[in-house]
Amino acid sequence: MNILTHYIYNKVYGQRCKAAVLALGLALFAWSPASAQIVMDDEEEEEEEVTVIEDEITVTDKEGNEEEIEFPDAMTYDLDSLMNLYMTKTYIDKGEDCYMKDVNPVFTTEEYISRLSRMPTVMEMAYNEVVQTFIDRYTGRLRHTVSYMLGAANFYMPIFEEALEAYQLPLELKYLPVIESALNPKAISRVGATGLWQFMLTTGKEYGLNVNSLVDERRDPVKASYAAARYLSDLYKVFNDWNLVIAAYNCGPANISKAIHRAGGEKTDYWHIYPYLPKETRGYVPAFIAANYVMNYYCEHNICPMTSRLPSKTDTIVVDRQLHLRQVADVMGLDIEMLRSLNPEYRRDVVPGNTSPSAVRLPASDVGRFIDLKDSIFNYNAAELLSKRQSVEINDDVPIYVSKKKRTHRSTRRYATRRRRR
């Protein structure tokens, strides 16, 4: 398959997928970089020189001052871990029929600027040396991860677009999860942010996502997408600038307000307050621009999308009793990994229907069977799988306490008395 065929396949097939994936129940809820070398533009830059290190970049200005900018966590993920996700193994193929050379071409600065300016976006996609470094990272070292994300995009982008459209937000925000989670629904950051949209615990709860020991709705792609859209909408009401909005999404609105104040408080522009932002946030907007670029211009960089197949249609059934996914799997003969991928919000495979009515997502063809086998499912191995006792009896035996220390003390005294009598 040549580069044009791949391009047409992804564009046309991707458009067909949008309505189909939503109509099929939004079924999918569920790489380290390859050895491809980053190709850097050899042209000399007038103001800044950028060098790439493992998980951060060091920017040196013309005065010789250096600053470190961190890559987002998702740019350091292991490719193998993404490929081992159930839905990836089931519905995504590496595309062995791709005959494009695994080489990243070099383009002029003017070409990058032109491509970014031609993208149909509301948000500003400005070019600079830092943005170029992130583009190089995606099209070079992370090019095989980009292949995965292009395949997974057919599953998740329609969900993201529906949520963003509901709040009348720019659709290019659908690429935020690319830099947040690399489209891994099970992603957990080093600070505990979870899911495709990487919600922190407090923010997730603030925007209606239920999180407790059994349930974590931050891992639900649909609920998390609508929560993220509402959060982004609220941030725009505060900052009225989309670059500041996504920067605030990364480090919190308080840190953006502090950076604006430290920069003089007059100009509310991301690139103006840039030196006063946290290290990771200084790389966040450039990474977002680079993600938009690579998800649109991957063909120009000889990146083949992995091929994807639509999952089976799914539906939900609401239960009002506690249920373990293993009960469903064993009684109905379903794959437990498939059930976990369809119900990622249940952290320990337990559906707490006894706490509040809870939805279980199943293949649509199995919903009727679940209803027919409901009693058998709820009763199957319940004592072992749902072992929390509702009540317990207290042992009413009267304990007899014997102090070994006292007895030893008396024995010692008697022994000492005997010694004196002798």
- Percent range for β-strand residues: 5-15%
Tell me the total number of β-strands: 9
Helix count?
A: 19
Helix and strand pattern:
HEEEHHEHHHHHHHHHHEEEHHEEHHHH
Stretches with pLDDT under 50, minimum 5 residues: 1-53
Strands ordered across the widest β-sheet: 1-2-3
Q: In the CATH scheme, what's the topology name of the largest domain?
A: Lysozyme
Calculate the mean pLDDT score and round it.
Answer: 83
Largest sheet: 3 strands, antiparallel
* Helix-strand makeup class: mainly alpha
CATH architecture of the largest domain: Orthogonal Bundle
* CATH class category label of the largest domain: Mainly Alpha
Which word captures the global form?
globular
* Rg from Cα: 28 Å
The figure for the number of domains is 2
What is the rounded distance between the termini?
A: 106 Å
- Level of helix content? 40-55%
